RNA sequence: GCCGAAGUGGCGGAAUAGGCAGACGCGCACGACUCAAAAUCGUGUUCCCUACGGGAAUGAGGGUUCGAUUCCCUCCUUCGGCACCA
């Protein structure tokens, strides 16, 4: 006797154990089948899987399962991004070693992940903090170094005083320039740090050909890189005849340059400063250095500056123009020096007005007879004036060579050798060094004689020492270790010291999709045979918050490795889809402090994983997300239970089995195939909410068909079979249970082929067509689906309601859209 | 300021070639079952009106069209990103 009540706890445990024992989700190379690499972003092992993980992973899993049923050999791996600050910060508090804590957390999260019933291939699990993993993170660093793409430089870098480490530019967020992780405003520190030359790939990173990524992500990356076309121009200093290179997007306004501004940190400031101005310049420099970037960056701040007493020579006309320093010029963009054209630049205009500097207009606006200095800078189109050889050239608002005036001056500058066409980016090289312990070591050694050199590759990995002291000093705990940093120079064998900073964890996650291919491979970062079969990633799913971080780093990494000869193709991930966010019931972001966190473990205990999965797919558009609704999940729970009842208890139907009319059977079959068509399409398009609603609709139809005596008919059996197959990716446990135990079908439903739509069955044979009169629906007529225009027309004219609304008049126009609608114009 | 996304019932949302707005679900109301409640099942549920009929309605206004949630223009609001970037 079967248990008639739905008991998800025992069903789910039973099948998870069996799938595991049978290695049902093991993915191995199979050249006879097309492959599909479905990747979802790996979690940081915080110790608890939250509802956001479920929201990202279970629909991704459902789609991977769908692809598998479609005949693809699907790889859907999982792992842990296990290095990082939280474990180390916790260690500072309670002394528990990050490795120990991380292992415990992973152990717990593996269990939670298994409770999802996802098709993860655990044999391919990769953990970035394992030496067998970070050995290759180090190895990649060395490959970048050898290719000239990793370098060390002293520069003012962003430092989070709370996390006690430097951050990459991408990890500094918002108006107040706070740390992406902890929210603390960052400060500047002058430090020698390792960088990757990401800017070398700026132009290529702006191209997205051949990848199907959301416009949103492409826009974010494009804005982040912020390519700016213009020219670089060489000015000479009067004192010392030094070259001063400036970048400008408006080289055509060179004749209007009436002064020059250096950033206070510019290297030539001391050279050009006159003895009389020295004191004032020094004072301004000190004051600017004391101000944070935030203060300096305040948009509405009044501009300040100091005259250096020095002059520069304008290369186009030999004009002698004063050099000022001002903090509105930033050392971090362009060359840290600008030519100031107050007539045609708002900032320069404000500065010139304040310090009474000359303003020379060089663009005559359209429709005006004379170029005059107005109340603000003129940045529109017109004709060049006061500009020597450029006079009379039209100016538009285009950037770069698309603007005739800019094209002309660039040619001229290049011919004279005083400037050239140039492109600038806001994008910076990737700062890799972190002053922390719990990260992949940077495998570099410093010797007083031979400088920096990589650790020989056969000596990798450089492993983290276990006996370290946790102190929040702002320096790497590795530096404070008594012996770890002492080593020998790989060139001369003499005494040398190791790099004690560790790598940004985004380095680890830039290649995890490659480690999944062969997580225990020890002859390289991945087994080439696996690479050739599985790569590139076909679908990648995860949050949009990584648009300018992980997703940009990964693209850079792949392109750099392609050029080094390690990877193939131009992009690592062909298709990207982002899920939205599950908010708390109060419509706020979930957080412990708000007390609005929804714990998936509790939901699984109460409803079972299948219901949680179904609700997460159903309750919102996946790419949008929505606030959690703890009453809403009851709807999904009801659906699952009603499906259970429909399959396990067909006898309680009032209609007697097998007595259904031909029409009932035909209608059932039509609904089944129409649903199959929609579900198939929606799975392709990541539209999970309508998959579940279509399945709910079909279930409602099946209940009606059951009442009408459909149970026992061939159509009913087909409906049941197709229903479970469509349901299997969404609710894998109940689908398996009903498939094997109640329908007596061969195990496993997850190895079945996705059903094929019978188009003929899906077709309607009688349709109801709305009739519009002057744009308003006045009646509906029922006609055969393939009725001709003439037939439809006569059916319409026969309608009483139509005749009533026509009031005896002949319609001026009759539009018949076959199979859709009839529109009459009176 | 610049760039992007989004505005549809009380709520989440559907409408995927410009063709019946509100599928599916939540909530709510009423009914059945029950001593009662829960669960379950059934019916109804955009708004307005003089209500077996009619009107309005997809952020606002305009346009194209026989016909617009869908296409075009101008706004408004919300969210996200960037911002003294030369």
What is the gist of this entry?
This protein is an alpha+beta fold and 826 residues long. The protein contains 27 helices and 34 strands. The chain has four domains: 137-223 and 429-506, 3-Layer(aba) Sandwich (Rossmann fold); 228-425, Valyl/Leucyl/Isoleucyl-tRNA synthetase, editing domain (Isoleucyl-tRNA Synthetase, domain 2, Alpha-Beta Complex), CATH 3.90.740; 600-762, Isoleucyl-tRNA Synthetase, Domain 1; 766-825, Roll (Ubiquitin-like (UB roll)).
CATH class categorisation of the largest domain? Alpha Beta
Number of strands: 34
Mean pLDDT: 91
Using the alpha-carbon principal axes, give the shape.
globular
CATH topology title of the largest domain:
Isoleucyl-tRNA Synthetase, domain 2
List keywords for this structure.
single chain; 826 residues; alpha+beta; Rossmann fold; Isoleucyl-tRNA Synthetase, domain 2; Isoleucyl-tRNA Synthetase, Domain 1; 4 domains; seven-stranded mixed sheet; four-stranded parallel sheet; 27 helices; 34 strands; RNA-binding
Describe the protein's topology.
Blueprint: H1 8-21, E1 35-40, H2 51-69, E2 73-75, E3 79-80, H3 85-94, H4 98-114, E4 126-127, H5 131-146, E5 150-160, E6 165-167, E7 172-173, E8 178-179, E9 187-196, H6 202-205, H7 215-225, E10 227-237, E11 243-248, E12 259-262, H8 269-272, H9 278-290, H10 293-297, E13 305-313, E14 320-326, E15 337-340, H11 346-355, E16 363-365, E17 382-384, E18 394-395, H12 404-416, E19 419-425, E20 430-431, E21 433-434, E22 444-447, E23 451-454, H13 477-480, E24 486-488, E25 495-498, E26 502-503, H14 505-508, H15 512-515, H16 528-534, E27 537-543, H17 550-564, E28 573-579, E29 581-583, H18 600-607, H19 609-618, E30 625-627, H20 632-648, H21 662-684, H22 688-707, H23 714-727, H24 732-742, H25 759-762, E31 766-773, E32 776-784, H26 789-797, H27 800-806, E33 813-817, E34 821-825
Parallel strand pairs: 1-2, 1-27, 3-4, 12-14, 27-28, 29-30, 31-34
Antiparallel strand pairs: 5-6, 5-9, 7-8, 9-20, 10-11, 10-13, 10-19, 12-15, 13-14, 16-17, 17-18, 21-26, 22-23, 22-25, 24-25, 31-32, 33-34
The structure holds one RNA strand of 86 nucleotides.
